[in-house]
Design a protein that fits this description.
With 444 residues, the chain is an alpha/beta fold. It contains 14 helices and twelve strands. It has a six-stranded mixed beta sheet, with helices on one face. The protein has a six-stranded mixed beta sheet with strand order 8-9-7-10-11-12, with helices on both faces. Strand 1 and strand 2 form a beta hairpin. Helix 6 runs antiparallel to helix 7 and helix 12 runs antiparallel to helix 13. It binds guanosine-5'-diphosphate and magnesium ion. The site of magnesium ion has 5 residues, from helix 9. Magnesium ion binds next to helix 9.
């Protein structure tokens, strides 16, 4: 773990609970002076027993009681940050919490930067960088599936897979380097083809497997947009209401009912989605509807997935005029003759075909079943490092056949190792840390 730029000498404090009033408000303190500062704040003028919730009171400058609640003391290194940590659990008044915080600053605490508690945990080797990122993911999880995935990463399952790949790389590089050290020795060519085979099976294939999960993994946290387009009256708004399970959009037999964009958040298989209903595509003289159609086309162009809806009873609605990912034939309760094969046949009225639609939508969002969900790639940062490391591994494999170029193989593979290390925060990664922790909130 890099200790470069390691300046965790100060004692930091921040309000850890979100802004606004709440039942409980929590202030966290971390650093070497935490116990002595607490003993000047507490009515008991002392630090409570470690790891025991203790009823406490906290005083202002003039010795008056500001608030009372529980104080928790976690001596380092067995604490979240690895330093002495103190948590004050008081009442959730923003004014009183702010007054307590100001008092802590008077007593010598520094304001914590965004993510500084977790950053200190990384600097003290309590978490690797992928685990620290998982802390943000746990907070941001919009679905239970995303939350469970973030937990796996926080437990270090993903990081463990990366370090296993790094160990395998190290051993393969060592084999190449050993042969470089003894150039006079006759090394059978089979030796190198075996090394190449091992590299493909033990490193390249697992990385490819992990990368295949990235579209799903990233969408699990970033969400995806799904646009519904089609002619007027085909049942677009009805579909939106059915998918999200509530009466969100006005449905009527009158053409041109939906003129503005209308969106609703929901999930399919735990993937958070924003579903966007649009104005029916048609030529019209109505200025507002023209603008609605323009916005519909724009939305269809930028959505992650576009659903084209047609009306089984009106073949004139069957030809999409813009790109679409899934083709839905609605109202098959009215007619189901000679429907082109690319359409999913469905009826919002009867519920027919809805299960097929949901699963097709999930697969077009990249949903996959993984044997080990802990291998899922959930961040662009991880994906880019994996892709780049794969390029260097391949470059190294390309040089493996030629004895003159073996040193290049070792060099490329060592570089690939360093790229994988970047995922865990190993190496000279100050700039990575700055970027990763800029995503955090204060108090985490
Ligand atoms: N028979 C039948 N009618 C439907 C179905 N889906 C929607 N409708 C009706 O079609 C009309 C237009 O629906 P709407 O959702 O407003 O269409 P939109 O203009 O595409 O948004 C309404 O009268 C709906 O009740 C369906 O599956 N079967
Ligand atoms: Mg509509």
């Amino acid at each position: 773990m890099s200790n470069k730029g390691f300046t965790s000498k100060s004692t930091i404090a921040a309000i850890a609970t979100p802004p606004g009033r709440g039942g409980v408000g929590i202030i966290r303190i971390s650093g070497p002076d935490a116990p002595s500062i607490l003993s000047r704040l507490s009515v008991h003028r002392s630090v409570p027993k470690s790891r025991q919730a203790t009823l406490d009171g906290w005083l202002d400058q003039s010795g008056e009681l500001l608030d009372q609640g529980l104080t928790l003391y976690f001596p380092g290194p067995a604490s979240y940050t690895g330093e002495d940590v103190i948590e004050l659990q008081g009442h959730g008044s923003p004014v009183i919490l702010q007054a307590l915080l100001s008092r802590l600053f008077e007593l010598g605490c520094q304001p914590a930067q965004a993510g500084e508690f977790t950053r200190r945990a990384v600097e003290h080797g309590k978490l690797d960088l992928s685990q620290a990122e998982a802390v943000v993911a746990c907070i941001d999880a919009a679905t239970v599936r995303a939350g469970k995935q973030a937990q796996k990463q926080l437990q270090g399952v993903f990081g463990k897979h990366i370090s296993t790949l790094m160990q395998r790389l190290t051993s393969l590089v060592a084999h190449v380097e050993a042969s470089l050290d003894f150039p006079e020795e006759e090394i059978p060519t089979l030796y190198f083809s075996d090394l190449g085979k091992k590299m493909r099976e033990e490193v390249v294939e697992p990385i490819r497997y992990m990368l295949a999960s990235a579209p799903l993994g990233e969408r699990l946290f970033e969400g995806a947009t799904v646009a519904i387009i089609g002619s007027p009256n085909v049942g677009k708004s009805s579909l939106l209401n059915t998918l999200c399970g509530r009466d969100r959009a006005i449905v009527s037999h009158i053409e041109g009912t939906t003129r503005d964009l209308l969106d609703v958040d929901f999930e399919i298989n735990g993937i958070p989605l924003r579903l966007i209903d649009t104005a029916g595509l048609r030529d019209t003289d109505d200025m507002i509807e023209i603008e609605g159609v323009r916005r519909a086309l724009q939305t269809a162009g930028s959505a992650d997935v576009t659903l084209f809806v047609a009306d089984a009873s009106r073949p004139e609605t069957w030809t999409p005029t813009v790109h679409a990912d899934l083709f839905l034939m609605n109202k098959v309760d009215l007619m189901r003759n000679s429907i082109p094969e690319k359409f999913i046949q469905m009826s919002v009225s009867t519920g027919a075909g809805m299960a097929v639609l949901r699963s097709s939508l999930a697969s077009s969002l990249g949903d996959v079943q993984m044997g080990d969900e802990g291998m899922m790639v959930t961040r662009e940062r991880h994906r880019l490092l994996l892709v780049e490391s794969l390029e260097y591994i391949e470059a190294g494999l390309g040089c493996l056949g030629n004895e003159e170029m073996l040193d290049l193989t070792a060099m490329h593979w060592r570089h690939a190792w360093g790229l994988l290390g970047g995922i865990l925060g190993i190496g000279d990664v100050e700039y990575i840390l700055d970027r990763v922790f800029s995503e955090f909130c204060i108090g985490k």
